[in-house]
Amino acid sequence: MTEFENNNFEENGGTMEDALNAVHDVKVGDIVKGEVLALEDRQAIIGIEGTGVEGVVPAKELSTLPVEDINEVVKVGDVLDLVVISSIGKDKENGSYLLSKRRLDAKKVWEEIEEKYQNGETIEAPVTNVVKGGLIVDVGVRGFVPASMVEDYFVDDFNEYKGKTLEFKIIEIEPSENRLILSHKAIVEEEKEQKKAELLASISEGDVIEGTVARLTDFGAFIDLGGIDGLVHVSEISHSHVGKPSDVLSVGDKVNVAVLSVDPTTERVSLSIKDTLPGPWTDIEEKAPKGAVLEGTVKRLTSFGAFVEVFPGVEGLVHISQISHKHIATPHEVLSEGDQIQVKVLDVNPEEHRIALSIKALEEKPEETEESYEPEPEDYQDTEDGSGFTMGDILGETLKDDEEE
Fold first, then answer.
1. Number of helices and strands (H, E) in the chain?
2. CA distance 186 to 181
3. Residue 102 near residue 62, CB atoms below 8 Å
4. At 148, is the secondary structure helix, strand, or coil?
5. If 0-12 CB within 10 Å is exposed, 13-18 middle and 19+ buried, where does residue 253 land?
6. pTM
7. Chain segment 304-327, per-residue pLDDT in tens
8. What whole-number distance in Å separates Cα of residue 345 and Cα of residue 324?
9. Cα–Cα distance measured from residue 58 to residue 66, given in angstroms and rounded to the nearest whole number
10. Half-sphere exposure of residue 185, counting CA atoms within 13 Å on the CB side?
11. Going along 217-266, which residue ranges are E strands?
């Protein structure tokens, strides 16, 4: 019997006979209590309570973590819970036993992890090593994170993870085989889904928010709104014509976007950049007041006139009657698409996005003779507002174009 046990019995009023009667055999697999009697040669000498025999705990069996200095793990006088691994020596009465604190601790850890697994809980653990195929983490026992379960994107070098503490989802657990498979990727994906749901619930049509250009395609730009990507169609990038999104945007650009629509069911968000920018017709009465002379480009020719772009995204109509002082059958007789011309503003209607222009107002009117004078067709007479065209002219031409298509 150890001095530790004798003192306990004496303090409690017991006799030596009582102590001897209390001694019981030690069997492999027993869980016992023991006092640290001494520390020597990277092992702890243990007095096993209630047995009268001693055991040893090698440094590697003291902790689930690597032990560099045994004195930092235990000290003389500590009472430990231990499991008996094996018997040492032939004489059991005076022999010793190989004991382990690590295995008992690991058993408790496995039980705790299994409980968390059953409850759907996550665990946090430091990454202790990087190996081929993934990460090794310490959760009291060894856990493995396959490379495919580290992030939701490709990782080229895992060394930066060493020493970091991460949150993991328990994927597979088998204590009898010391197998514990963990996933950090599952945590990342769940967090993104949660952020996505919160974002979809927080934004609505008309909101203006900042985002980052994540991807560019031929039909538009995908904008990262901080948890979900929204689409800016190429027609919603600018008030002026954009051939390809990459002509005006780059991945990583910070942009303000207006929310056009949100569909929580499909998780689709439609966005517009141009709706956050001043429109081409903003302050048009100041940029193109009545009587102003402007430079413009002939964009389209129709049977009733020519559409001329005087500012990016702003086109005005030069009615056929305002092209020349001479009578012409079609605008094509004197104009071609792409021509750079000067025009005079006859009238501006910001609400209807309409500007009436004239070319002939900038030209000297020739002297009229009876032979040269030809009255203009009644359909092309100037309207009361001086625009030189009627809505009937435009609608008729549009319907004609639609039929031809």
1. 6, 20
2. 12
3. yes
4. helix
5. middle
6. 0.55
7. 999 999 998 899 999 999 999 999
8. 15
9. 12
10. 16
11. 220-224, 229-233, 254-263
